Amino acid sequence: MVSRIADSEMYAHLWGTEELRAVFDEKARLQAWLDILVALARAQSALGLIPPESADAIAEAAHVERLDLTYAAAETRSTSHSTLGLIHAFQRILPEPAREHVYLGVTVQDITDTWTALALRQVGSIVWRDLRIIESLVLDLAETYRTAAMVGRTHGQPGAPITFGFKAASWADELRRHLDRLRHGQDHWLVGQLAGSVGGLGFFGDHGVGLRRDFCARVALADPGISWLTSRDRLVEFAQVLATISGTLARIGGEVYELQRPEIGELREPAGMGAVSSITMPHKRNPERSEHLDTLARLVRANAGAMLEAMVQQHERDGRGWKTEWIALPEVCLLTGTALQFTIEILSGLEVDTERMAANLAIQSGFINSERVLAALTPHLGKHRAQELMHDALQPSGGAPRQVIAALAGAGIDGLELADPPGAAPPLAPPPAALTMVDEVVRRARAARAAESDTWPT
Amino acid sequence: MVSRIADSEMYAHLWGTEELRAVFDEKARLQAWLDILVALARAQSALGLIPPESADAIAEAAHVERLDLTYAAAETRSTSHSTLGLIHAFQRILPEPAREHVYLGVTVQDITDTWTALALRQVGSIVWRDLRIIESLVLDLAETYRTAAMVGRTHGQPGAPITFGFKAASWADELRRHLDRLRHGQDHWLVGQLAGSVGGLGFFGDHGVGLRRDFCARVALADPGISWLTSRDRLVEFAQVLATISGTLARIGGEVYELQRPEIGELREPAGMGAVSSITMPHKRNPERSEHLDTLARLVRANAGAMLEAMVQQHERDGRGWKTEWIALPEVCLLTGTALQFTIEILSGLEVDTERMAANLAIQSGFINSERVLAALTPHLGKHRAQELMHDALQPSGGAPRQVIAALAGAGIDGLELADPPGAAPPLAPPPAALTMVDEVVRRARAARAAESDTWPT
Amino acid sequence: MVSRIADSEMYAHLWGTEELRAVFDEKARLQAWLDILVALARAQSALGLIPPESADAIAEAAHVERLDLTYAAAETRSTSHSTLGLIHAFQRILPEPAREHVYLGVTVQDITDTWTALALRQVGSIVWRDLRIIESLVLDLAETYRTAAMVGRTHGQPGAPITFGFKAASWADELRRHLDRLRHGQDHWLVGQLAGSVGGLGFFGDHGVGLRRDFCARVALADPGISWLTSRDRLVEFAQVLATISGTLARIGGEVYELQRPEIGELREPAGMGAVSSITMPHKRNPERSEHLDTLARLVRANAGAMLEAMVQQHERDGRGWKTEWIALPEVCLLTGTALQFTIEILSGLEVDTERMAANLAIQSGFINSERVLAALTPHLGKHRAQELMHDALQPSGGAPRQVIAALAGAGIDGLELADPPGAAPPLAPPPAALTMVDEVVRRARAARAAESDTWPT
Amino acid sequence: MVSRIADSEMYAHLWGTEELRAVFDEKARLQAWLDILVALARAQSALGLIPPESADAIAEAAHVERLDLTYAAAETRSTSHSTLGLIHAFQRILPEPAREHVYLGVTVQDITDTWTALALRQVGSIVWRDLRIIESLVLDLAETYRTAAMVGRTHGQPGAPITFGFKAASWADELRRHLDRLRHGQDHWLVGQLAGSVGGLGFFGDHGVGLRRDFCARVALADPGISWLTSRDRLVEFAQVLATISGTLARIGGEVYELQRPEIGELREPAGMGAVSSITMPHKRNPERSEHLDTLARLVRANAGAMLEAMVQQHERDGRGWKTEWIALPEVCLLTGTALQFTIEILSGLEVDTERMAANLAIQSGFINSERVLAALTPHLGKHRAQELMHDALQPSGGAPRQVIAALAGAGIDGLELADPPGAAPPLAPPPAALTMVDEVVRRARAARAAESDTWPT
Predict the structure, then answer these.
(1) Contact map slice: B 115-154 vs A, CB within 8 A
(2) H or E element, residue D153
(3) Hey, of C81, C104, C327, which one would you mutate to test binding to chain D, going by the most D CBs within 10 A of its CB?
């Protein structure tokens, strides 16, 4: 029974990718847990804590498809213990004495936290890869539309001209910082957990720290140095980085959503996407994927918030925060990963209507260029006086710069000789600084890309 | 593939009840959608919009097990439309011309919002029922332990005596307000949706409002009077009420969790629950269900927060907030329902150790009774002066009231003749007002229970 | 030193109203606390717990301007106690023995919770009044623009026609539910607190409950029946209701913000508001107040979320949640109240450009009317087949209904005789159901308004 | 009028430090804005955009105490513009033509974002300093109490032994990661903003990028390379790092709060703090500062959540998210800074009761050592069989390891010859791995401290 729509047959594609769902799939997770138990047995065998034959037997049996999961689930419920059901099912297929040597001296979090780190390694590598794909697409947009003038808008209102490349460069700038965060945080995230009951590895006497070192090496995670059973900033930070990434993607999606309004018409999601937008209004073309980026970011935020609250844990284990992570952290990963894929799809075929951009600028003319007119008037009138006069002149019912000049004359400003009358300047040219900024962002990003690994951890 | 642990075979019982999972189960939801399509067809037939034969054919075919859900899912993905996949699969098993008469003139939200209201009717009835069971258990605790004296604690520190019945009465008082909220809100929540493309029911010409009236009657929901496509306070309010209920349950769970510390030892979850608490520390008895109430409340809050944000919707339909509801609202329902069941289990067998309660009071003696000693000294010394003297005397290394009296004498207070020397008062008697409050809460609740329906909507 | 920008001289008007700031002003709050102490002394005197002369002396001295607040603040810091600083300062101006009779047997929360209820009475009455003003303005809009056809938009895209009155009616519908919530919740909120140390009123022996009854009557609040020191759902519910109100106002603001885009140009904030929108772009007219409604709603949500978390309190007093309320609840009130005022300002002078609305409809023509064309074709082709054909025909580069008909003919559909050819229908008429819905909402609201008190509590 | 309790005379010390309040104080902020205007004028003068005399005049007049702030506030309100009121007040004291040369070509965010970065430089340096003080205190605790055995607790229940030094080392480990985050993030945060109207610096023609470079150098911030008007991940990240720091401090506070329960009695806030805990219960000693750390962390989280939401900004300026930052970011800083100070106070005088720790271990004996007994039995019985037998034997009413052995004998286990009978092992010795972990954490931290700057930015 699938009670979560996010896993439903009809809608799972909106809330997960196949690739990420495979990371968090129940069977895959249980297999990973078994693999961790194998690594543990191998490490214990290497230290002489269990016989090598037991480690071999454990390794041989550790295949999820061999377990009776119905029995494991029933035992999970009857013991109210998070891993004992699985262990009981595993023991059933283990020979003596391996049966007694599996899961020796460790506890739930040793398995689940180590698995989480392994899952984050997969998630991080997907996010790194997809972010770099998106960065590449965005850099291409920045270069292609470097000089494609369009209306810059503030508070929802047309302001001065920018270029679409400049807008894309702003996205690229933000994306690069996310890549930097992903790279920097990997040391915090990719660590194993071997803590035992309360973190002190008391079960293993003098062998505790050595066992952990070997165990971590076998699962290819760093040794944490100290148990982190209730020290959860590591996972919170990962969730936060993904939440900010989702925020950036929602920002990009928001631009497409708003600029796809036919009244504006400057951007459009790729044709073919959102195939049937409305079944009662056949003419509709909805920016459904762009819109969905916002939905995903909201839910990521909600779960990242739960992660942050879950940092405040009590004593040496605290199920209140820890079980919160069980739900919230995979959710953050699945939804962010979906957002990355949707963004790739949108940007790969983004329709950029430079003619409409130019037309929208032209419609505004006079108005849109008011910053430059102001600059031209400033030497003559002073900036603030010019601003006030223009503000009064440029009422919504008002007009173009020439009318401003007339207004100024009407206001008794005489001796105004504009060698380069403001309205005469080509109205649509983007500001040169915007182009320089595009170049700078692209240059930095391309240099960083050339110098970095295209796989993560880097 | 089940990527959400909340639906996993091993752990689904921690994040849902069978009963609630059946409400939100994919098949059940699709069947409910089909039933809504039937109600719509019947209503359209009654108005002459489609032939009665088509309504009959639609009703006859509307069984989810007859649909090819794999095809429906594929069509959902290829059309990027939320219901068209289902409709295509439905049309495949409908005869002509019913095929053209199904889902006539309506849109996704007509189906999904109406379904949501129907689901909330089921959820609300479960919550109402379980809340009343919990109230009953809590009222019994309040009566049984009306005079069972225990330490009242503030800021985690022992203060003056209360009784366990008083503590339970505080829970009962809060629970009753939730029942009041559930009853009051039902008019806001149990309404149908028939809005068409943009809310104006334009497809139906002059028949729109009449069609909605009949449609709502057929699904046994109120007629909303106006479309509520982007007016989502209804659903937000439901989520908020459930979130506050979860908060109350987490408060109850928190008491059990803390008072089950063996250093305190006043409450314990029922024996047999949490059967195996630790596999490395065999002596452990963890308050796992009480603890989990806190986890559930956190996740409910996170999702209720997403619901609140989703109120701010744009124009006549806004997928950003609406799709957020798809995930967040069922989650609120499933998790709150789980918390209710866990609470019933805990309270049904709660172990109340009145001897330990008395012993904890006795250990504190002198200290714990300081409020009463203060009251006794007040006529002699004035309240604030007495407080200061007692505060100085009652250092942690200090002692019992007699030492306070000595300290007072040592402080030069003479002529102090205590007819009823404070330390002589029976130290453990609970304050009479606490007992009166228990009686009042129980009386009000029992009266309300007698007067109200035991089913919801009331 | 004012470290919070919300109270800064320059910007306080954005984050509070004079009226609400006066409720939460430090001096006003301290005066209210003194008044509560007076009510307490009067009640204690009536029960013979303190002499009437002391009650008189306390009443006479209880004026905040008579207190040395610098001393009170210093004592607050040195005692680390929330009210003892104030009490010490108060005692300084009280004669013996009243000095010992002030604040007798009660604790911080008795004062602060009672004050909170009194503050909520003021806040609630402001919110009730302003909501009703807004409802009235919105009802007027609904009636005035009942038939003013405009584009209905879904997913940011033009859909079928609605009227601006219909949009306003949707707001009115939501506002009325808020009024219902405010009315219903008043019994939960307007209660006094007299609980003493741990809720049991132990200091007062047999007098506790009677004292509370009299005390509550004197402060004109209901008697709660039982102490609610850690039962905080009352305050959470108030915060939630205000948060949903803020959400509605943000939804209204969002419409103005987006429809004020000059590319759409259908609504505009009143002229004269947002006087200088940009000092480098003199032509700008920003929807600054509408925009700010969204900001306010976000911050209200954040604080309402903190309130919700603060429900889960421990034992008989829990400073962690309680002190959270100190910050979060006033913030919710101040910001919501500001949003109400801004909304009144916006709606009072809202510029509705019906010509532009009509023009935007006309631009879309053919497209916008696709729902009605579809309805007209449905009897001939079947609804779903018509939808598919229209969908293919109405590509963005496509055209008007006549082209649809041509497309249909081209698709081999013959025998199509449209008595009323779809494109010939007057394209801009709003759907009749929308008008009926406006009428229904207005009728219900006007009836409710006539029957209800215009002051709160009702 | 101070409507926010956080700035009230009585309670400001709970919600801010003098040092941080001085950063966000209105006058200080306005002075910083003036200083930024001076830097701008100097940079513009250096490029020949304004005469040097104007820059000199601007610099000379730029003193907040010379401005008429009442006038500035009135102008702020009448213009509805965030900085124009200040500029008008500034112009009043500027000579011609400097009056026209101030604030030339820039907009609000140029001033406020640059100021924010400057404020974050101050805040970051305070946080860095205080975090390192706390780390030092915690390292001292880890070393001092390296071998001080105490009960490790999971799910609120006593488990196996740890040491208090081990608990402190877990805190230290977490604190060090925060220092790493602070160091790494500085490049993201300490950047100036010079963007003009829409980010393209159009006012300045070809001079834009050069002007920004010089301006940033003058305010000692990095040049961002591209405008970041709506690219707010920088500030969100800062808020997130502070929120996780607050979470760590709340975790530390939570330990003190719970372990200060007299029933446990292992830790206590410094004597003298929380001087008067209760005025009706004179014996109380409340962990008020520890408790408050949790309150602060909640409010920080709420505001950090608002910051995260505010990332999703529209077009080239979006007041909805940006104005949210105005409130939320300073709040995060002020509250986190307060938490740091409280933590320093608590840890500086933390009372660690090692005798009580030992006694609590002894009370548990038999139970608490169950992990080690289990380890000793494992070679004889197998781990899981031993666990089951011990679990049955160690009922709450059960007993010590010897009884376990008896139970095992009773269960028919014969041939059990324990060379080192489990109950004979010294029961309270902490596990050696715990001590090694303490050493490792201390070693790493001391090495990092020796290698790093004690000021920030590093």
Answers:
(1) none
(2) strand D149-154
(3) C327
Has residue B210 been placed in a domain?
Answer: no
Smallest CA–CA separation between C125 and chain D, in Å?
A: 18
Residue C201 belongs to a domain: no
Positive or negative CA dihedral for A148, A153, A156, A159?
negative
Residue C81 falls in the annotated catalytic set: no
Q: Is the pLDDT assigned to residue B182 strictly greater than 70?
A: yes
Residue B187 domain flag:
yes
Kindly report the CATH number assigned to the domain that includes residue D55: 1.10.275.10
Cα dist. C230→B244, B297, C113, C199, C311 in Å?
Answer: 13, 17, 11, 9, 8
Interface residue B433 vs chain D (CB under 8 A) = no
Tell how far CA C410 is from the center of its chain: 56
Nearest to B433 by CA among C45, C193, C105, C207: C207
Does A135 lie in the same domain as A182? yes
pLDDT tens digits along D276-311:
667 677 777 899 999 999 999 999 999 999 999 999
Question: What ipTM was estimated for this complex?
Answer: 0.93
Tell me the count of A-D CB pairs closer than 8 A: 335
pLDDT of residue C67: 97
CATH code: domain of residue C445: 1.20.200.10
A residues 213..252 contacting D (CB < 8 A): 224-228, 230-231, 233-234, 236-237, 240, 243-244, 247-248, 250-251
Identify whether residues C41 and C65 lie together within a single domain.
Answer: yes
Minimum Cα–Cα distance from C309: chain D residue: D298
Please compute, for residue C301, the number of CA atoms within 13 A of its CA located in the half-sphere on the CB side.
33
- Strands A157-163 and A149-154 come out as antiparallel
Peptide bond into D282 cis (omega under 30): no
CA gap A294, B321 in Å, rounded: 9
Whether residue B33 is found in the same domain as residue B61: yes
Residue span of the structural domain in which C43 resides: 18-99
Do residues B159 and D284 touch, judged by C-beta distance below 8 A?
Answer: yes
Q: Does B294 touch chain D (CB under 8 A)?
A: no
Percent of chain A with pLDDT over 70: 89
- Of residues B157, B257, B285, nearest to D285 (C-beta): B157
Nearest Cα to Cα of residue A37 among A93, A120, A121: A93
User: Which of B70, B99, B128 is a domain's end point?
Assistant: B99
Q: Do A440 and D383 touch (CB under 8 A)?
A: no
- For position D396, what pLDDT does the model report? 53
In a shared domain, residues C157 and C38: no
Residues B257 and B322 reside in one and the same domain: yes
Residue whose pair of structure tokens reads 């008491």 in the numeric block: B255
Phi, psi of C165 (to 5 degrees): -60, -35
**Residue B302 and residue A304: Cα distance in Å, rounded?**
9
Which tokens belong to D328?
């939320």
How close D211 gets to chain A, by Cα (Å)? 10
Q: Is the dihedral of CA D404, D408, D414, D416 positive or negative?
A: negative
- Determine contact: A18 vs chain D, CB below 8 A: no
The verdict on C262 touching A (C-beta cutoff 8 Å) is yes
The whole-angstrom separation of Cα A453 and Cα A183 is 10
The whole-model pTM stands at 0.95
Q: Searching chain C, which residue's CA lies closest to the CA of residue D318? A: C291
Q: How does residue D398 score in pLDDT terms, banded at 50, 70 and 90?
A: very low
Phi, psi of C218 (to 5 degrees): -70, -30
User: Both D60 and D118 in a single domain?
Assistant: no
Kind and range of the H or E run holding C268: strand C267-268
pLDDT band, very low/low/confident/very high, at D80 (cuts 50, 70, 90): confident
Question: Cβ A157–C277 below 8 Å, yes or no?
Answer: yes
B167 and B304 share one domain? yes
Tokens standing for residue C260: 């004020």
